[in-house]
Amino acid sequence: MNYTCYIFDLDDTLLDFKAGEEKGLRSVFSAFQKQPVTFKDWLTNYHEINQATWQQIEAGALAQPLLDTRFAKTFATFGQAIDGVAAEAHFRQVLDTNDAILPGSKELLASLADKGVKLIAGTNGKTATQYQRLAMTGFDRYFQHIVISGEIGHAKPSRAFFDHIFRLYPQYQPSDFIMIGDSLQSDIVGAKQAQIDSVWLTNQTTTSAIKPTYQVASLAELAEILL
Question: What residue spans of 96-197 are helical by DSSP H?
């Protein structure tokens, strides 16, 4: 791959978001659940509601008002009213301290940095959360720029998110950029709309008409290609 600027998604691409998410969800369930329901059933409903929430955010809706309702909506499906803002804050407190990383991510970033390429973190999410996790893992040292939807007011896959990155590098053309991420709808669709190449990090197969430029099943496979 002959690119100059590598845009990396963070959650479930470099950082192990699922590890921190599960810990946070179990903590919210334990702290707020008063009805006789299993965590498994509760989690199924949460994931459905959370997916719909992020679809709205990625379509341009304001993030925080929606995030402040996702737990209240989840508990409401079991007939329980809770303080959604408090539950979201509880979850965020656990999530902010998640420093789990995916195997091989640190070595990949270090090797790319040694090659002298431009590394950009391009992620959806809360500003404070992402900065704290990057600092805790030490990954912040590798990125020239950190672009977070919560900070710039635009979320992937919007063209505005990528235009923000392009303005940071006016000397380069779209053909110099590549987007690397695990989300077809966020990362790959976003790259396509921005007219840049992409790498989809997944072991899934899809019948979607949306196709990445490259597809890899692991960071190890990605490292073989990039390095």
Answer: 105-115, 127-137, 149-152, 159-168, 189-194
Alpha carbons 211 and 189: distance in angstroms, whole number: 8
Grouping H, G, I as helix, E, B as strand and the rest as coil, residue 83 is coil
pTM: 0.82
What are the pLDDT digits (tens) for 116-131? Answer: 999 999 999 889 889 9
* pLDDT for the residue numbered 204: 84
Q: Measure the CA–CA gap between 43 and 225, rounded to whole angstroms.
A: 37
Residue 114 annotated to the active site: no
As given in the structure block, the two tokens for residue 95 are 């999530």
CA–CA dist 76, 61 (Å, integer)? 22
Q: What is the predicted pLDDT for the residue at 59?
A: 87
The pair of structure tokens assigned to 31 is: 């702290």
Bond before 65 cis per omega within 30 degrees: no
Between CA 148 and CA 131 the distance in angstroms is 9
Helix and strand totals (H; E) in the chain: 10, 6
- What is the DSSP secondary-structure string of 90-112? HHHHHHTT---B-TTHHHHHHHH
11 is catalytic: yes
| Interaxial angle between packed helices 105-115 and 219-226, expressed in degrees from 0 to 180 and rounded to the nearest 10 | 10
Residues 6+ apart with CB under 8 A from 20: 94, 95, 97, 98, 100
Q: What's the one-letter identity of residue 16?
A: D
